[in-house]
Structures are given as C-alpha cells and as structure tokens.
Amino acid sequence: MPRPARRAAAAAVVATVLVLAAAGCGGDDGEEPAATTTQAAPTSTTGDTEAEVPAEAVVVGHRGASGDAPEHTFAAYDLALQQGADYIEQDLQLTSDGVLVVLHDDTLDRTARGPAESCTGLVADKTLAQIQECEVGSWFNEANPDLADPAFAEQRIPTMEAVLDRYGTEVSYYIETKADDAQTGMEEALLDLLDEAGLGSPEGGSRQVLIQSFSPESLELVHSLRPELPLVLLIVVSEDPIQEATIDEAAAYATGIGPSSVNVDAALIGAAHERCLDVHPYTVDDPAQMSGLLDLGVDGMFTNTPDVLVAQREGHPPPPAHCAPPAS
Predict the structure, then answer these.
(1) What is the pLDDT along the chain (328 residues), one digit of tens a residue?
(2) Catalytic: which of 62, 72, 223, 273?
(3) Is 104 a catalytic residue?
(4) Which of 27, 121, 251, 309 sits at a 20 to 30 Å CA gap from 326?
(5) For 172, phi and psi rounded to 5 degrees?
C-alpha cells in the first residue's frame, strides 16, 4: 500500500478509536482515561468466536502497525488487524503499584509526553494513575511528519487488561515478558489476566496466545505455572551463528525461537525444525527480505507493516510441517 493510502487508513482507524472513546466506553471502576479503556471490539479479520491461527507463515504486528501509527496504542493495534495481522504484539512493563501496562521501553522518555514527574523516568517508579497522565502519540507525529495526525496525541498507554478487554478472544496475542528485578511478579500477573479473559488454558494445541521473552528464566517460570502455554525464546542479534546449544535449551520448554532476521539462514531453520521449534524472526519491513525469509521456510515474522507481509505471503507456500500434531 503506498504511504499516502497507508496514512489515510491510519487516520480512519484513529478516528474510529476516538469516536468510540467519546461514546463513553470504559473499565469497570472508571479509573482509566477514555482513550485507554475504549472497549468496543474493532473490526476483526477472524471469526465470530475465537481467533484462528493460519497454517501459513504468521504475520505479527510488531507493537501493532507501528510503521503507520504510534506503537503499542489502540490505533496501532486496530490498524494492524485491519491490515491482516495474525497477532498483535504487547511488551509488558509493571507499574509501582503492580499493574501491567503495554510499553516497549522500561522508561517513559522516548514515547510519553505529559507532566515530567509522571511521564519521564522508569515505568517501575510510577503508579498507574501517573502513567494515565501521559499520551504516547505526539512523538510519532514529530518523527513521521508525512504520517502525522493530531488525533494521535490522544492515544494513551494501555494496560494489558484493557487490551484483553478490548479485543477479547477474537484476536491472537504475542506477549513479551521482561526480566528485571524491579518487575518481579510480572509472569503471575499476566497469567491471572489471561485466565480472567478466558485465554489461560489453551486446548487442542491452540496458539492464540504466545508468550515470548529474551529471558529463559521468565519463560521457564511461565512453563512451570502453565506448561500448556506456547513459549518463544527471543535471541539477541549476534555477529556469530546461533549455537545449537541455545536451540537445545529452548526446546526444553519452548515451542519456538525468535532470532533477529539477520541471523536467520537455512541451517538455523533446519536445526529449529528438527527440534519441533517454530522460527519467528524480528523485525522485517523490506519486501525483498520478507520474500527471502519466506523462501527459507520461516514460520512467521514480526513486521511494522503487516499489510506488506500479508501481500508477500500470498505468493509463497506455507512453511513445511516439522512436527506431528499433539495427540488428541
């Protein structure tokens, strides 16, 4: 989609978000700002009941459609789904009063705007009430003048609970936990929210929720608490090939690995598939690179531009089956 058309689509999604917010949809206790707690379900490309993960390579909206709208906002998530993403990604942070919010950085400085005492510094040092004072769209307008929309300045930092309330069981989630001494309890808090949303006990091999982390310890904790949940070990970018020992370790508790796209080659994919692990590289926006990775047989990838990957995927066969389905 050309950038002017992409910008028009983003503007339409933001307008819908703000109209819904103005209609007064909100949380049960009324504590969250309207833009954060808009609960009306967006137009979904999935079925009327539960999301279905396709057999073809999955498209993961990296922080939503963050190439066209402010990352980790309802505008970005709605647009990602409109563009055909199979998953929307959430990065989790934990506030000082124990609430999971969706923000990539552990500090607010890059994307948040608002009172300095509330909207700068570590998320872990702020209460939810302080976080709610911040907007996270102005920075995007400043960085992307060709995609700027004044309505983006109304976008807020969502709680994970608000995300689950908004989209329910109609979409699929790709959630990243962070390993930090200041965020102890993140895994348990997430699992509680998934249980409350009816997403905590997948049956029949469902992968509607994937939990990823760069921290093996975080994933091993989740595995000990909910062994049925599919997990993905993120792997930091490396100048050297990824060691098979790393893949072996992941296979003990995970269902996939998430390497940087620059570290993906046929040998890595083969080694992962031999161990029944999916390969979901991050983060790919170039169509030629997408096509090359699909040719290699990746099982999906992260992108800031889901519609571009959807278009590339149409010309490629699904990734090869590499494991028998679970016994019924």
Answers:
(1) 555 555 555 556 555 555 454 443 333 333 333 333 333 334 333 334 455 555 899 999 999 999 999 999 999 999 999 999 999 999 999 999 999 999 999 999 999 999 999 999 999 999 999 999 999 999 999 999 999 999 999 999 999 999 999 999 999 999 999 876 667 899 999 999 999 999 977 665 679 999 999 999 999 999 999 999 999 999 999 999 999 999 999 999 999 999 999 999 999 999 999 999 999 999 999 999 999 999 999 999 999 999 999 999 998 999 988 885 554 3
(2) 62
(3) yes
(4) 309
(5) -115, 145
Closest CA to 214 of 231, 230, 233: 233
Q: Catalytic pick from 72, 104, 273, 280?
A: 104
Q: Which two tokens stand for residue 198?
A: 């009816």
What b-and-e string marks burial along 36-57, b requiring 16 or more CB atoms within 10 Å of the CB? bbbeeebeebbeeeebebeebb
**pTM for this one?**
0.86
Tokens representing 259 are 């390497």
Q: In this structure, what are the phi and psi dihedrals at residue 145, rounded to the nearest 5 degrees?
A: -60, -30
Measured in degrees and rounded to the nearest 5, phi and psi for residue 127 equal -80, 165
Please give the helix or strand (H or E) that residue 214 lies within, else none: none
Catalytic residue check, 316: no
**φ, ψ (nearest 5 deg) of residue 13:** -65, -45
